[in-house]
Write a structure and sequence with these properties.
This protein has 16 helices and 20 strands. Helix 1 (11-22) packs across helix 6 (181-193), helix 8 (237-247) packs across helix 9 (252-262) and helix 13 (337-345) packs across helix 16. By secondary structure, the chain is α/β, with parallel strands linked by helices. Strands 3-2-1-4-5-6-11 form a 7-stranded parallel β-sheet, sandwiched between helices. Strand 5 (103-109), helix 4 (118-132) and strand 6 (137-142) form a beta-alpha-beta unit. It starts with a strand and ends in an 11-residue tail after the last helix.
Length: 499
């Protein structure tokens, strides 16, 4: 079975792509800019260029396809997004009918009543346009989607992490039925094999009915955040979107459209999906817990030597990776990578931190006064490390001999911190990447990071220079040792050599 996936570069589509590839389907992705996807697809996945506003390109993309996913929207459009969505849906539906597609799978939003927001109304219209083609359509209508990176989750996170006191408009009390991204993907994947002789619509949601305010409180509970929330009766969607734009990373246009939709209840009225699909949606407590855990896992597996992860998000105060704040820098060192890693592996204890040791000792003293461990613990072995070892106020979290060392901070901090070193071989020696990472908790965590940012620039830049200098000193010392040993045995030859 050949499957066409639109929206593979998006939040839902990107996650669905991996599941489709893992299930053994023949997958074809269509994108306006295929170059953005080429590093995200598997070796067996086909990638074609196409634009939903260009019907001819859709005909080519849909040729020979059995099932097609429609997972796109135009909420970020500068123009009239409803018009763009109607044109895109009409082009896709017409091309799908001509190509003989057996089924279209579409993800929309739960909506009830006639007075809907422009976003929810457009979602309904797109579904209707797809059905009018005559191709059977499986339409899944979802409530709030919760997962690491989802728009709603990021809004909740930003509000709770940055605002110890917040005023909330009436829309935070509107009831919804949030669903985890994992369950949404399971529904989408299950729709491929679902018999569809005619179009069908399913409302999907988790087992909990709750408001945005309830979601915010559950997020705060799991992150250990206490917040004073003051409800106010007047805060229009327009003002709300401007307010969100100041305190969250949401783009103002998308934020406003999202808020206009939040004002409408999005609870499941028809539970047929639970009878037709084998999916058993998880409670919201577990969905938030898994979202946070997935971020930790993705973070733990990330290679900071891949600078492409940071380039697009670099600004004053470092880069961002999910909720993490990052200061990453690299340096070419003209020595063998194993020698460079040996220097890094020897950091801390009596060897010091290769720069600003006085400041490190001062930081340790302040940590002890705050009830922390300070810098007095030293290290087990001055040359070798293993996972679990103590290095002053740090602990070894990850260790790959000759390549990677990650230290987790055990000092008192308003959040979690790591210091990561990677060494990669290079034709001229090696490249050392040093990354400081911080997962701030609440406003105090963010204030801490930005207040000490200038000091971090001095300490971490100097540390990387110190590592490079120590590598060169060690390499020259080894060369002199070799010379001395060879000279004493009378084996050095050439002009001026020892006889």
């Amino acid at each position: 079975m050949k499957i066409l996936l639109t929206g593979a570069s998006g939040y839902v589509g990107g996650r669905l792509l991996k599941k489709l590839e893992g299930s053994g389907y023949a997958v074809r992705c269509v994108a306006r800019r295929p170059e953005f996807l080429k590093n995200s697809i598997g070796p067996a996945t086909e990638l074609v260029q196409g634009d939903l506003l260009d019907r001819d390109s859709m005909q080519k993309a849909l040729a020979g396809v059995d099932v097609a996913y429609y997972l796109v929207h135009s909420m970020g459009s500068k123009g009239v997004f409803e018009q763009e969505e109607r044109i895109s849906a009409a082009n896709f539906a017409s091309a799908a009918k001509d190509a003989g597609i057996k089924k279209i799978i579409y993800l929309g939003g739960i909506s009830h009543g006639n007075e809907l927001s422009a976003h929810l109304k457009s979602r309904q219209q797109v579904g209707a346009i797809l059905r009018e083609s005559g191709v059977p359509v499986i339409e899944l209508r979802a409530s709030i989607i919760i997962g690491s990176g989802s728009l709603s989750f990021e809004m909740i996170r930003a509000l709770m992490e940055r605002l110890p006191v917040m005023t909330t408009p009436k829309w935070v009390n509107v009831m919804a039925q949030p669903i985890s991204i994992e369950d949404v993907i399971a529904y989408l994947l299950g729709s491929v094999e679902l018999p569809a002789h005619e179009s069908r619509t399913f409302e999907i949601g988790g087992p909990d009915r709750m408001s945005y305010l309830d979601l915010m409180k559950e997020y705060g509970r799991q992150r250990g955040l206490r917040r004073l929330i003051v409800p106010v009766p007047v805060l229009s969607p327009g003002l709300s979107s401007l307010w969100l734009g100041l305190v969250t990373p949401l783009y103002a246009r998308v934020g406003r459209k999202l808020i206009e939709s939040i004002r409408h209840e999005t609870t499941v009225h028809d539970s047929e999906a639970l009878r037709v699909y084998s999916v058993k949606p998880m409670p919201i407590r577990e969905a938030i817990e898994r979202a946070l855990k997935n971020e930790d896992q993705e973070f733990a597996l990330t290679r900071w030597s891949d600078s492409s992860l940071l380039v697009a998000r670099r600004n004053w105060g470092g880069a961002r990776f999910g909720s993490r704040l990052i200061d990453s820098r690299r340096r070419e060192v003209p020595v063998d990578s194993r020698k460079a890693f040996a220097v890094i592996e020897s950091i801390g204890g009596k060897n010091g931190w290769y720069h600003a040791d006085l400041l490190w000792r001062l930081r340790g003293t302040l940590d002890v006064l705050a009830g922390g461990v300070g810098m007095r613990r030293g290290r087990r072995d001055p040359r070798k490390l293993r996972v679990g070892d103590v290095v002053d106020c740090w602990r070894v979290e990850r260790y790959e001999a000759g390549r990677n060392l990650r230290l987790s901070a055990e000092m008192k901090l308003p959040g979690r911190a790591w210091l990561d070193f990677e060494v990669q071989p290079d034709p001229r020696g090696c490249v050392v990447t040093q990354t400081a990472l911080f997962d701030p908790v609440g406003l105090s965590g963010h204030l801490y990071w930005y207040l000490v940012w200038p000091l971090h620039q001095y300490v971490f830049e100097g540390m990387l220079r110190g590592i490079a200098r120590r590598c060169l000193d060690a390499d020259q010392g080894n060369a002199l040792d070799r010379y001395d040993r060879t000279a004493s045995s009378g084996q050095v030859s050439g002009t001026g050599g020892v006889e």
